[in-house]
Structure prediction request, 128 residues.
Amino acid sequence: METLTESFELNDATRPYDIKHRSYFFSKEIINFVKGCRYDKIYSSLFDQLIRSATSIGANVVEGRAGSSKKDWQKFLNIALKSANETKYWLCLIRDTIDDIAKNKINELIKEADEISKIIASIIINSK
Prediction:
């Protein structure tokens, strides 16, 4: 099993199953995507919000696992789910307002954020 610090390209064959690892690699993808984008100053807050929400997913999953109770764990998973949904919002807004942006890459990121949110929602539902 790969560790959080190992680096590799995400594709269907190498995508980690564990939500902790998957959300970590998603955060890295978002950071690398934003790092490669060129945009006007007016859009900087959108990209800042995108990085904050995307990295919050994994941070809350990890923090929830370290929680002291099941209720605490579920609280952090709910926050992670909200962050995943917020991430989709920012990605869609960036895709739909910036002309010179890699729309295919953004659509891939939206798809991954959607899959992550479905996994987290499933974990929450099954933990009740």
Residues 1-10 have pLDDT under 50 and may be disordered. The CA atoms of residues 6 and 25 lie 10 Å apart. The first helix runs from residue 19 to 35. The chain is about 70% helix and 0% strand.
